[in-house]
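Quick one, T. Sequence first:
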Amino acid sequence: MRDDVTNLSRRNALGCLATAAALAGAAPLLASATSATGKGTSPSKGGGRLKQSLSRWTSKAPLPELCTRLKSLGFVGVDLLYADEWSVVQDHGLAVSMGYPAKRDNFIEFGFNDPANHAQLIKEIETTIPLAKRAGVTNLITMFGNRKDGIDDQRAIDNCIAGLSKIAPYAQENGITLHLELLNSKVDHHGYQGDHTAFGVAVTKGLNSPNVKLLYDIYHMQIMEGDVIRTIRDNIQWIGHFHTGGVPGRHEIDGTQELNYHAVAMAIADLNYQGFIAHEFSPARPDPFASFAEAFKICTV
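Structure tokens:
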């Protein structure tokens, strides 16, 4: 998750989910490739045991061009897409590995940790779930939110459980998994409350729903905790999605940064993980697609 990129940034997408009403009445999307739901034809894994995708905001290329080039590199999905982008990706034979339930500029800060947010968050997710089901999109992202006065970690955990328990059954009924993202509060997202794995696990364990999981962002958790491989192994049952990014700087995941991403990918694959690992870094090199290709190779295990 970055908040300092251009208008492609996840945080700076303005407005509401304007396409929801239109899509809700539209005919079901018949995609040639979707997330694994039994609808359409799921993409085969490319390049080893892990399904790799790329976060949309990391590239300035038009979405159709991005899809064509990613597919040629072996990627099987595109991550972090709004509902009006889903069909473009699927028409190119790729999966939507993670979808947004809303477009608003406070998406990160506005989370389930504050009960005052629950009604709006639940309404957004309730609106998007039928769209996702018809499109064969099985993953939606949501947030823990920024800290608020009077809401300590334990109360925030309880609030998240209370709010998500109201929407989790509907998600399960429709085959949708909600993913709560872990972010660092040290560098990129000051004030974010879901900044440690233990916090996220307390929420998912408290819910104990197969359709509410953690989005474990390796970049963010390396900054906050380190000990990435051990943490993933100990908590894989609560993790449904991964993001990558080089530390420090949020750039390439190659030898210029401190993590051995090939070893991390190997550890994830050895756990028989069936979800996506989505690359989410800002390329520092002149040719971003060379960086994407290298990341794909590094995580091919």
